[in-house]
Amino acid sequence: MTDAFYLPLGDDRWQATVHTTGPWDARFQHGGPPSALLGREVERRSGRDDLVTGRVTVEILGAVPVGELTMSSRVSRPGRSVELVQAVLSAGGRDVARAEAWRVLRTTESVASRDRTAPALPEPGPALELGDWIDGYLSAVEWRFAEGAFGRPGPSAAWARLRHPLVPDEDPTPLSRVLAVADSGNGVSSELPITGWHFINPEVTVHLHREAVGEWVCLDARTAISPGGSGLATSVLSDRDGPLGVGAQSLLVAPR
Asked: What fold does the segment set 6-107+135-255 form as a domain?
């Protein structure tokens, strides 16, 4: 059980494990695992297999501790064809992350758009050079770069899959697999040296036009920074069958 990202404590409470730890401070989580846990709760609260998630926005309201979390959720806009679901994680009596997801009726059409293919999945390479980064989430995910590399400025295409279940005795859903890595678009496509600059995202928004298939998710990511503005990281999200959606992150860009 300790191999999962989160352990159940009962009464909608979860204990975060070391696998959730972000690279900068051992006290706080990377944004990917709580996003995935929120996505799991959105689907659980909805309980409708006839709906698929078209858009999820995760707001990071504060540092998410590697500790005990409490989950709450509600269907804030029910409907026959579309519904809006909200899920909230709190710690120590304050909300730390919130997700809002639009779920829409599955299509009965067989027409598919003509879309580009995803970058090829590379063969396994050497382990990540962690340097001064804190281990946890970075090693809990298997990374394979088709273009670029961690710590190398510029666009990149990185394939990722979870090495551990999100919660014990349960396979992550396609939505949770995507949300677990979509928050890494800014990290894999930094335009500035990561040792000297922050590019922190207070949110991540994911739009999906189909559900992911299989374990692997690709982020074909790039970051845009303009003088006097904020940053924007965007990712084309794919599985081995091709693109399935896009992710975007607003960024606070500032020297460390």
From this structure: Porin (2.40.160)
Q: Is the pTM of this model over 0.85?
A: yes
- Domain range list for the chain: 6-107+135-255
**Residue 127 gets which letter from DSSP?**
P
Alpha carbons 95 and 127: distance in angstroms, whole number? 35
Reduced to 3 states (helix: H, G, I; strand: E, B; else coil), residue 48 is coil
CA distance 120 to 111: 25
Q: Which of 172, 250, 236 is nearest to 205 (CA)?
A: 250
* The dihedral formed by the CA atoms of 37, 159, 254 and 247, expressed in degrees to the nearest 10: -60
pLDDT in tens, 40-92: 999 999 999 999 999 999 999 999 999 999 999 999 999 999 999 999 999 99
